[in-house]
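Second attempt. The first submission of Prephenate dehydratase had a stray character pasted in from the spreadsheet, which I only caught after the job came back as garbage. Lesson logged: always re-copy from the clean sequence file. Corrected sequence (306 aa) follows.
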Amino acid sequence: MTNAYGYLGPAGTFCHEALLTVPDLPGHLRPYPSVVAALDAVRKDQIDAALVPIENNIEGGVSATLDNLTYGETLMIRSEVLLPVEFNLYVRPGTALSDVTRIVTHPHAYAQCREWVQTNLPGATVSEGGSTAAGAAEIADPNSRYHATICSQAAGELHDLEAVATAIADNKQAVTRFILVTKPGPPPERTGADKTTLVVFLRDDEAGALLRMLEQFASRGVNLSRIESRPSRLVRGHYSFSIDAEGHINDHRVAGALKGLKRTSRDVIFLGSYPRANGFRPQVPEGQSDDSYHAAEAWLKDLRQR
Ligand SMILES: O=C(O)C(=O)Cc1ccccc1
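This time the job returned cleanly.
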């Protein structure tokens, strides 16, 4: 144990803000310059866990996170955090909004403010920064070639910047989902309001492979809360599916779906079962509860012993 958690830094990122809401934080919180650097630090036992973004409600999944969890040495999701994100446009004190032609920020921040930028700063170019707080640090430098950054109020104030526009997100309800990731180990206890994250590689040269994958969930009453296809790095023209299923690996119906996927697909990566941040409890259809499975198993055992 290192008594340290990592996050996409520097201080003042949305990741940092999300991490501060996690209960029982260790003594040290360490910033990393990228999602991949934070995840690799977990793999090398330099930190016990890392908090990284996985999904936002404008762009969908965060590819850097999803792909690293799919192709890197296996890690496990322990919990999730939902953070409403608000974006402001910050400049060095004295710069007017009309002077802004070069913006630097994290691509997800820009993605969520694209219409605002096009409407209000139509000539401006936007460059990719490592994070929103890295953008704020850049703008604080008087020699910077950039004029403005899109970041949170916390990051703007940390660097003594001036907000020339506030609440500039195109969707005012923007929420980002972050995950806390550790080395593999036993999953957290089942709470009844859980989520299971998987990557499934289909036997996609077989007709109906996608339908067969979905049947593993549907036939057991397991609802999916996210499903995204990602191009496979291993075989060109093939895809993997990144999936969040409602329920825990210790629910019989979810375990049944996992076993079915293992039997019928090319490969399955289990990335964790963990409590849902919104506390949502799935509707378990008749016949899919653990009690129903136990009763059916007892019946079968009895038949075999007759
Ligand atoms: O750059 C940051 O502050 C991050 O934590 C990544 C991010 C960027 C925009 C929205 C949500 C997360």
